[in-house]
Amino acid sequence: MKNLNLSLMIIAITGLTFAACRKRDTKKVEERDTEQTTINENNLAENSASDADVMGSQVSENYTLTTYKTSGADLLLSATCATVSTTFSNSAVSSATVDFGTSCVGKDGRTRSGKLFYNFSGSNVNAKNYRNPGFNMVVTSQNYVVDGNAITLTKTVTNTTPLSLPTGTNPGTNLSWQVTANVTITKANNEGTVNWSCNRTKTLLNTNDPNVYKGQLLPIDWTKARIQISGTANGTNAKGENFSVTANNLVRDFTCAPDPLRPKRHPFISGTMQYTPGNRPTRYVDFGNGACDFSAVVTIEGQEFTITLP
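User: That's the sequence. What structure does it adopt?
Assistant: Structure tokens below.
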């Protein structure tokens, strides 16, 4: 009888231990399966850096700035609320400031304030514009706020297209740029701080389209462009966790604008990302096969979730 009681006690203790482990494991799996906030934080940093790049390309490409804020090539700004000032050297812009004042609502539906500074002095002597091989642009910010998120950034973009690029409308290769950035975002409503750094390659996928790339003597028409982004990023999310990201062939089509109320907001429409926050399992993000929408599919440990991009 004594041995029987001892055996029953061991079984009971083992059962309780197993149940406790299952409870902890279930809680851990549930947390892993539902944590998607950091993906949106990465997307926020990605978009913030991309916006600064796009505006800088417009400043350099349309260096007279006579149509910068009103032409079809203007991707972001409204017609009146942003002020652009430039410094010229040898008939090209050597530096520029975009001042959004205290509140500027862009054509992408975002509200901006503060300033972005652009320095083009690191470019090769004949590389005056974003489209020119050897062009270099450094972007910094001052009191820059987008939709209530305070953004501090430093970004460097270098045109890495071969210097021997032909001058015709079809150069036989796609224009490409090397992009590095360091971004700190203090999120609105005291929701934490995101730190993000990247090293990326940007490619103009339809360089061979004469309606987009018109040769080295004329500006790129970004309203018809398709770009591809690949590379790595890392940083800390608003929870203080380290994260790493690998972007594979992310495609943004500037003819795609799913929201008619925000006609200048262009989401990624294809490509994938592998995203690892802290010690959590890797999230696999699929932006689709080219459909023009704001959705993406996130896979975590075999479970799929459809998310809407901000």
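Confidence is low (pLDDT under 50) at residues 2-33, 64-73.
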